[in-house]
# Entry
Amino acid sequence: MPYTHYKTPHLAQFFPIIGWLKTYRRQDISDDLFAGIITAILLVPQGIAYAILAGLPPQLGLYASILPPIAYALLGTSRTLSVGPVSIAAIMIAGVLTAPEVSALGNPVQSALILSAESGLMMLLMALLRLGGWVNFISHPVLAGFTSGAALLIIGSQLPQLVGLKAPSCGIDMDCYPHYLSDANTSTSLISILSLSLLLFFGKPMTTLLKKSGVTLSLVTAISKCGPLLVVILGTLAVNRFNLAEQAVAVVGNIPSGFPKLNTDFIDLQKGRLLLPYSAFIALIAYVESIAIAKVTANLRGQKIIPNQELIALGVANMVAAISGGMPVAGGFSRTMVNFSAGAHTQMAMLIAAGFLALSVIFFSPWFADIPKPALAAIILVAVFRLVRIKHIFHTWNYDSADGKAELATLLGVLLLGIEEGIALGIVLTIVCHLRKTSHPHIAIVGRIPDTEHYRNIQRHNVETWHHLLLVRIDESITFANISFIEDYLDAELKRRPDTRHIVLIFTSVSDIDTTALEALELFNQSVQASGKTLNVSEAKGPVLDKLQKTDFIEQLKPGKVFFRTEDAVKELG
# Structure
């Protein structure tokens, strides 16, 4: 359903829910109800699992899945984005909480709530400054490298839990690992193996089987996404039936019943100052991840995403998470695709999902106490494994080596230096590579294709040329960064072609000439004229010509000229 503007633009601008409610149809409610139930089923195990992944009590993941999605539903422009705890943010939070300067302050729950509040404030500040478009400064290769690196960190953090072990401290001592693995818990390992097997079966095998049986697509989606809930239920029953907690199988433990009181008691200015840089990174990544997912589903339905409004919606959602006792939130890829595939038309589906989850927290929290942690670790592994895209690095490298290097550097930076450092490394490397490309623009000597008025690179086509006429096409704006390269290129070509009497600079791809470049062109023109040659310009764009006409450059070209077409220059000078 396309995004529509209404007669109350100011109110609908800040509350997009008004827009889709005005066109909400009775038949939409059944689809949204179905999608909401399926998403709620996924929210329970994911909320608990991602909180544990972040090193937080499980209720922080559940609380983050109730009021924040409601806040987003009121303010967000995506009809299907599912907001809540996500794996990437969880591993970032875990990294922050284990940092020596943060862990020294104690109370990780308070730190997590401060991260939620500050992330929300950072997003609102970005919205106020209208920086929604700044997401484009993080290139896709950097984001892909970061995602793969973070996913590998998550997998590494969960593997020990699959066998009931703590994180290894062996380092590169290979002799240490046999003794370390000998302490693996048999019951924990068995739960992990069965959980992984069931989750994998509920993937492609189950989907293929159901499709061959003639089951409708929506029902296939519903059944195939029930794997995590089934793993949690069966794992909990096994813990109770066989007293596995007494066999050292780690369980979630007691989760407080009822809904937390809304408060701001977590505010601590000293901690806030310390956590602010981390919050900025979490806010940036949460926004980038959310906007990317939102655009995917919106494009599939011809809908529109407004980046600045998304900053407001996600910022408010994170602040609501803080005052309701939840961890930082973002748009989750797996939940959003489940919500979308299950037939959700609007954010009513997420309102329904949040409602079901609220009932679960209020009335069924005691049931969550015996959920085995290895089952949750298996859920996390299966969810994030698809985010590891090592092959993508090779594809990127083959297409553009600079982007490939940035993606690989980001991945290695995340693994070896840390998440924030890895992202920063990728961004800096991308900017450096971009500046290098800009400083070495493509320049072509061109000639005319016979019997046409088309001019192409002499190294790629069979073309007509003239020994006393040099036609040079510059395929980039001319700036302080590349003017030296252009001058060196022209000087080298003139030395190679001593019979040249006329040079024509073809500006078809030149969108701007800055002051430094203009001064250099003026000096180059003087040098050309001193050697008895003329410098000419052809096919300059209107904005470029407007700027040149404000200077003496065109007058200084004489006897050189500015030609409307390259063909005109050839007819006169050839």
Q: What stands out?
A: The CA atoms of residues 424 and 491 lie 39 Å apart. The domain at 443-573 is CATH 3.30.750.24 (Transcription Regulator spoIIAA). The chain is about 60% helix and 5% strand.
